[in-house]
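ARCHIVE CARD
Drawer: 12
Card no.: 0347
Subject: one protein chain, sequence and derived structure
Cross-reference: see card 0346
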Amino acid sequence: MEGVVDTDAYHRQVNFPFFWDGHEEGEYLIEAGTPLVHVIPFKREQTELQFDTWDEEQMIKDELLHMTKFHDNYRRLWWHKRKAK
C-alpha cells in the first residue's frame, strides 16, 4: 500500500495502514525491530527547511478538529491536491 502524508500540514501521529497477506488467521507476535513500513521523504518543491519543537497547542487543536469527523479525517481535513511542476 502506498501513499503520501502531508506532514507539513498534519500535526498528529501517522498510522500506517497495511494489508495482511498471510494465509492463516490467528494471533501473531511481531518482534521488536521488525520493519513494518518503508518511509521515503521527498521534496516536492524548492523550500526553506525549518526544524523546531512540536507546537503542543496546535496539536491539541488539530486533535479536536480531527475528532469532529468519523470517516476519512485526514483526507477531509488536511489532504489537498498538489500542483504539478
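Annotation on reverse: The chain has a mean pLDDT of 80. The first helix runs from residue 56 to 66.
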